[in-house]
Design goal:
Elements (H helix, E strand, L loop, with lengths): L1 E6 L4 E10 L2 E11 L6 H19 L3 E5 L7 H20 L4 E4 L1 H9 L6 H11 L9 H25 L2
Parallel strand pairs: 1-4, 4-5
Antiparallel strand pairs: 1-2, 2-3
Length: 165
């Protein structure tokens, strides 16, 4: 099963694709959409939409996993990230992809076994679990891979439970 993980943001949106085969997780691809701070905000959202749409068409994932917006102290940042997240969800809905949404703590708990794991711990676990030679860069892409790994497991569990009914 191919899983797309998305770490939404308006400056940088992390993307990661993993293949889950039984209990094995395989790195397929990762990248980051970086928008120009000098561009109009609407153009930045268009860039996110266009790149994500291409990624969905190219990799054809079975499920997408998106990180939920967590509490932010800066309201304008939270609103902008929320708008970018809305664009992400719209692209995924247009592609008729099932979406799993997870909080940062749920991702950390799933991947590192500890809901308060720090960034370095998460990067080390992503590198180890995907058998990579180095930590995926930039950080947003590593986060997206972790999101894909955690959400892929949630999706498979939900699928198993539904088939047992």
């Amino acid at each position: 099963m191919l899983v797309l993980g998305v770490d939404p943001g308006f400056g940088r949106t992390g993307l990661g694709v993993v293949r889950i085969e039984g209990s094995k997780m395989i790195h397929v691809w990762h990248s980051c959409i970086e928008t120009d701070v000098h561009e109009d905000f609407a153009c930045r959202l268009q860039a996110i939409r266009s790149v994500l749409d291409q990624v969905v068409k190219e990799y054809q994932p079975e499920v997408a996993v998106v990180e939920k917006l967590f509490f932010q102290t800066n309201v304008s940042t939270a609103i902008n990230v929320g708008m970018a997240r809305g664009v992400v969800l719209l692209v995924l809905a247009d592609a008729n992809l099932p979406v799993v949404e997870l909080t940062p703590n749920e991702v950390k708990q799933s991947v590192a076994g500890y809901g308060s794991a720090d960034k370095k711990q998460m990067q080390a676990m992503v590198t180890r679990l995907l058998n990579l030679k180095s930590v995926p860069k930039p950080d947003d892409a590593a986060d997206a891979l972790a999101i894909a790994m955690a959400g892929g497991q949630v999706f498979l569990t939900q699928k198993r439970l539904a088939s047992n009914r």
